[in-house]
Amino acid sequence: MKVFVAMSGGVDSSVAAALLQERGHEVVGVWMRLAPAADTGPRCCGTFEAGEDARRAAAVLGIPFYALNYEDVFGRNVVDRFVGAYAEGETPNPCVACNQYVKFEALLGDVLAKFGGDALATGHYARVTRDPDGGARLRRATDAQKDQSYALYMLGQRHLRRLLLPIGELADKAETRRIAARHGLATATKPDSQDICFIGGDYRDFARRRVPDAFVPGPIRSSEGAELGMHEGIGAYTVGQREGLGIATGERLYVLRIEPSARALVVGGRDELGRTRYRLRDLRFTVTTPGAAFDIEVALRYRGTPVSAEVRLDERGADLLLHEPATVSPGQAAVFYRGDEVVGGGIVTSS
């Protein structure tokens, strides 16, 4: 089988290529340039430096290697969405957007339609299992500490049937590095990438340059409507935040919600945090829709412990009814699990 491996320049994708080569596949390495050509910094897997690391790994393995330019796709669907979400009072997850729009729409689509590939492989810590009828199921990685299945919930059958995730089958990251060392890969000792890879410092500074309207001061109000002070802009805050409010009332206050139209923060005590009902948009399912209403376990943050909930679908999205109160920022993904299988998920809205 001809498998294209999305090589980021890190150890995980390098080992994914090595494992697939060991299994007898025709492996082709491909690196996605996501950052401007002038950006040589080490932050993002799409910078020139990361591309050179990927190229060297492919050379060690003796596999063909191609560099593809997805800067525009990344900028439009990841960076612009990221900063735009803060302007709407949301807290986005750029890894989810990158997986959805860049790796598994743009890249997978090109691999199949343009390059004659049979499958795409990545270095994600998750697993894909096959049903007797040819269907595919997305599951947690063997190593729960590294599991990344949460950020892949949007993948449907047309993606999963053409996806290989060999790293998710390994026991832990130490095994990944041992395999890299065995193959003579320099990435064996390369540090793990960090969250928000395209931002080198504080996300607020990055967002302020791109969406200055999100950093116009506005009122801070209590849950009863009393004005308590002014904030520096809704883009600097997220639901549940306590630090940086800049007001003194004699009690600890938390951001309960953000009202973009009024540029307002609504704050309250810890006992006011947490809700049992949330609204979801952009629902996706990995196999089939479980039904109009179903009980499920839901993870409300990356590597969060799933909690019990009921989901009620309608034509505009879904209501998520938690059995116990939880605090979730709008813009975050709520991901549905049955045991170790990812069933689907959606994005928490501000309403």
List the helices and strands and how they pair.
Elements: E1 2-6, H1 11-22, E2 26-33, H2 48-61, E3 65-69, H3 71-87, H4 94-113, E4 119-121, E5 126-130, E6 136-140, H5 157-160, E7 163-164, H6 173-182, H7 203-210, E8 218-222, E9 227-231, E10 254-259, E11 264-268, E12 275-285, E13 293-299, E14 307-314, E15 317-326, E16 333-338, E17 341-348
Walk me through what this model shows.
With 351 residues, the protein is an alpha/beta fold. The chain has three domains: 2-124 and 165-189, HUPs (Rossmann fold, 3-Layer(aba) Sandwich), CATH 3.40.50; 216-272, Adenine nucleotide alpha hydrolases-like domains (SH3 type barrels), CATH 2.30.30.280; 275-348, Elongation Factor Tu (Ef-tu), domain 3, CATH 2.40.30. Helices cover 24% and strands 30% of the residues. It contains seven helices and 17 strands. A six-stranded antiparallel beta barrel has the order 12-15-14-13-16-17. A five-stranded parallel sheet has the order 3-2-1-4-7, with helices on both faces. The chain is globular. The protein starts with a strand and ends with a strand.
